[in-house]
């Protein structure tokens, strides 16, 4: 039996909290119960002295959809597995709904898990796979039938009860995995790259279903992904990891428009980044002559080196001489068109500025602009309010 399958069964086989577990509730932990569902208090993990997770404080609120996003090896699965109890932290405390569970085994944490490889029992049909966690809890046959029927209905699999996992597509198998998780109403659902094995179209569809499910159930959900679009689309908040540390924790909007660092700006979406020097209030200079207005230089001194972020969709690009699109008073420059492409209803312009810098601009598809020949002169405009200074690292 695979390690993952064993883990799943351990979770699925959890009993209701016993006396021993309640005895572990510390007074301090109980006092923190309230809006916080999961609390990491200085939690770290080392493997033979190498840190997989540096000492981390993290709070997941009740009912929240929190994504753990980051490149490979950044510590996402380590956090998820520490919450699940399948990895013991090297230091720190974990509170679940105010209760210190640092030493509570996985089966007693009342969590649901969904894995990338579904981890279904191949010899059982869909009904029995979903019923499994209820059977190990000793629930009666009538209630099992009701709850399995309802869980399968929620994931759109009514009528598939008798199928074996191998007779189903990847997307359907993952729906079974989700039904098996929600059937026993866990207070927290942990999903580890649940859509990682599916193609883009199915991923998009199941993303919508997971989002709806989360809204309907109101359960706290922690979701590991390395796909930034998925994280931004699904989450109330995103916890972006880098090298075993939290790079930024915030709403998708905050990460996208107010990234805390160049790493965050780069990882989440596309960006134009300019090295610049602060030359006055809300004004910076790029290179020798180019002066830009920025949203704010508060907290920076004149002469300080900074990086300025402008998201491509905030830059309006048009062939030089064409009517300007709106009044984006503030910043402008000219350049030559290096490439134009049509991506999902947007036109993307890759531009080269006179000093050799590259710039990306994106806008709602514009037929006239799209027909602009490569090498033509383009004029770009954007507002100072959309030029954000990044904190220097
Ligand atoms: N059992 C282990 N023994 C030694 N090192 C480990 C072990 N498990 C994880 N690590 C290391 O800990 C770090 C964090 O791993 P983790 O699995 O949390 O990353 P991740 O962000 O989930 O990556 P991925 O997206 O590739 O799954 C990595 O450097 C990894 O090599």
TrEMBL record:
Gene3D superfamilies given in the database record: 2.40.50.100, P-loop containing nucleotide triphosphate hydrolases
Keyword Cell membrane part of the UniProt annotation: yes
GO BP, sorted A to Z: quaternary ammonium group transport
GO CC term, one of those recorded: ATP-binding cassette (ABC) transporter complex
GO MF terms held by the record: ATP binding; ATP hydrolysis activity; transmembrane transporter activity
Residue ranges of every copy of the ABC transporter domain listed in the record: 38-268
Entry keywords, A to Z: ATP-binding, Cell inner membrane, Cell membrane, Membrane, Nucleotide-binding, Transport
Keyword ATP-binding assigned: yes
Residue ranges, annotated region (Disordered): 7-28
Short name of any one Pfam family annotated for the protein: ABC_tran
PANTHER family linked to this entry: SPERMIDINE/PUTRESCINE IMPORT ATP-BINDING PROTEIN POTA, SPERMIDINE_PUTRESCINE IMPORT ATP-BINDING PROTEIN POTA
Protein name: Putative spermidine/putrescine transport system ATP-binding protein
Native source species: Chitinasiproducens palmae
Highest classification ranks of the organism: Bacteria, Pseudomonadati, Pseudomonadota, Betaproteobacteria, Burkholderiales
């Amino acid at each position: 039996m695979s390690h993952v399958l064993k883990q799943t069964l351990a979770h699925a086989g959890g009993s209701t909290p016993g006396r021993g577990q309640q005895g572990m509730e510390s007074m301090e932990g109980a006092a923190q119960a309230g809006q916080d569902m999961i609390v990491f208090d200085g939690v770290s993990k080392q493997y033979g002295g190498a840190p997989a997770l540096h000492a981390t404080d993290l709070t997941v609120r009740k009912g929240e959809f929190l994504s753990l996003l980051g490149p490979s090896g950044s510590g996402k699965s380590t956090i998820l597995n520490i919450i699940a109890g399948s990895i013991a932290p090297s230091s720190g405390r974990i509170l679940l709904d105010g209760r210190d569970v640092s030493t509570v085994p996985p089966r007693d944490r009342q969590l649901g898990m969904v894995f990338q490889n579904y981890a279904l029992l191949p010899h059982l049909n869909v009904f029995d796979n979903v019923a499994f966690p209820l059977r190990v809890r000793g629930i009666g046959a009538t209630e099992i039938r009701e709850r399995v029927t309802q869980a399968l209905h929620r994931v759109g699999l009514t009528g598939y009860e008798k199928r074996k996992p191998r007779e189903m597509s990847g997307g359907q198998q993952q729906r079974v995995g989700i039904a098996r998780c929600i059937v026993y109403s866990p207070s927290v659902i942990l999903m580890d790259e649940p859509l990682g094995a599916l193609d883009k179209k199915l991923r998009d569809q199941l993303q919508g279903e997971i989002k709806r499910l989360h809204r309907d159930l109101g359960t706290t959900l922690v979701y590991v992904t390395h796909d930034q679009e998925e994280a931004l689309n699904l989450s109330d908040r995103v916890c972006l990891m880098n090298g075993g540390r939290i790079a930024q924790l915030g709403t998708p909007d905050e990460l996208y428009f107010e990234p805390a660092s160049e790493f965050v700006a780069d990882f989440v979406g596309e960006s134009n980044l300019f090295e610049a020097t602060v030359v006055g209030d809300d004004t910076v200079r790029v290179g020798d002559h180019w002066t830009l207005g920025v949203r704010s230089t508060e907290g920076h001194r004149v002469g300080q080196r900074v990086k300025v972020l402008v998201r491509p969709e905030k830059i309006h690009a048009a062939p030089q001489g064409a009517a300007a699109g709106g009044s984006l008073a503030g910043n402008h420059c000219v350049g030559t068109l290096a490439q134009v492409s049509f991506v999902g209803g947007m036109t993307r312009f890759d531009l080269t500025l006179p000093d050799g810098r590259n710039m990306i601009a994106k806008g709602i598809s514009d037929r006239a602009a799209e027909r602009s020949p490569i090498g033509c002169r383009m004029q770009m405009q954007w507002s100072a309010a959309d030029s954000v200074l990044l904190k220097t690292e």
